[in-house]
Design goal:
The protein is of the alpha/beta class. It is built from 7 helices and 5 strands.
Length: 138
């Protein structure tokens, strides 16, 4: 049974989101927009932090690294010349195989990796093959 929501905040920065999520006075969960939320997947916390305004949609080259934001739609990975040029385009091809274009415009990299046990594993397998890591950039 989901907790009764008593607090909702849409945050303007990563720092503000982390401050709210790390507090110990009230159980707080991130609210990440998804095109389809599986039954029972809604956060069971009395406080929610809405992350949809954060700047997590990007693909950029940083020296030898390719950095991709967690809110980057899969379709961006299919269309990005930087992603297609990396490792023979394995991540771009995996993103294309993961869903039809209508869903790729909504589905994000984080959702594809996090929800891999429920959906096609293409993006997760490409991520593993590339030795990619996921971490919060402050």
């Amino acid at each position: 049974m989901a907790a009764q929501i008593r607090e909702y905040q849409r945050v303007p920065s990563v720092e503000h989101a982390l401050a709210l999520l790390e507090r110990t006075t009230v159980a707080t969960a991130p609210l990440i927009p998804r095109p389809r939320v599986p039954e029972g997947a809604f956060p069971a916390a009395p406080a929610l932090v809405d992350l949809q305004e954060l700047p997590w949609r990007y693909v950029r080259v940083d020296g030898p690294l390719l950095r991709i934001g967690s809110a980057t739609p899969l379709q961006d990975l299919v269309e990005s010349t930087e992603v297609r040029a990396m490792a023979g385009g394995i991540l771009s091809a995996a993103a294309e195989l993961a869903a039809p274009q209508s869903r790729r415009t909504l589905a994000t990299l984080a959702g594809a990796v996090e929800g891999a046990e429920e959906g096609p594993p293409d993006v997760l397998l490409a991520k593993m093959a590339l030795g990619a890591s996921g971490k919060v950039q402050r």
